[in-house]
Amino acid sequence: MAARAKPKLAVWKFSSCDGCQLTLLDCEDELLAITEEVRISYFLEATRKAEKGPYDVSLVEGSITTPHDIKAIRDVRKNSKVLVSIGACSTAGGIQALRNFASVKDYSRAVYAHPEYLDTLTTSTAISDHVRVDFELRGCPINKHQLLEVLGAFLNGRKPNIPQYSECVECKRNGIVCRMVAKGTPCLGPATQAGCGTLCPGTDRGCYGCFGPAEGANTAALAARLAHLGKDDGEIGRLFRTFNANAEAFRKESQSHG
Questions:
Q1: Which of 123, 162, 138 is nearest to 88 (CA)?
Q2: Contact 30/151 with Cβ under 8 angstroms?
């Protein structure tokens, strides 16, 4: 009897820090189980050999920041049955999307001795701004348990079970006292999608919004609360301009504060 052909998995990198790809490698014991179920056909971070597509599932890390990226992501989409963007860079443009609110030419002149050699776009944008994406997995970096859930879901033909509620729900479940209520600490938790396991609130810090806007995020109400805590427009705008600065809800709120 012929052996069952394993689905082909590909992992791609665009403009990013590699942190979300490393999350897959950090799965350790679970990674062994993954390799029994799929054939890792393209993953330059972890393998020396690359196989041609088409691929059953492609995981894409990083944002689109160059003309070459645009062509490359279209090729990835064409050769992938399922495309999942992973991390804040691929789902919202990442920290590098701060260029979207300023002059790339000014940044280039300040950083590079010969900026004329650069071939870059004026914006950093999400994968879904350029091609159809089957699922977006948030986080900076992504949560490894959520990554395993997404892989398992698509390999078994079902919808991933990823929560879309706010970080506040996660805090309550883990018995974390609200930092904003108890101590007046600025926190993006009420407007941020859960997923980190209360990493920052659990260490007596406010949430930095690593997992992007939660479903139905009321950023205006949160901004009003931050103002009540003494934050001015500039500070409020900067709080919304971090890892997910170009996510729609965060972008619009930051722009409303100058």
A1: 138
A2: no
> Do residues 238 and 205 touch, judged by C-beta distance below 8 A?
no
Residue extents of the structural domains in the chain: 8-155, 167-255
pLDDT band at 2 (very low <50, low <70, confident <90, very high): low
Q: 8-155 falls under which CATH superfamily?
A: NADH:ubiquinone oxidoreductase-like, 20kDa subunit (3.40.50.700)
The Cα–Cα gap between 127 and 142 comes to 16
Dig out the tokens for 132 from the structure.
Answer: 């159809």
Model pLDDT for residues 52-84, shown as the tens digit of each residue: 999 999 999 999 999 999 999 999 999 999 999
Q: What is the pLDDT of residue 33?
A: 86
Containing 183, the helix (H) or strand (E) segment is helix 179-183
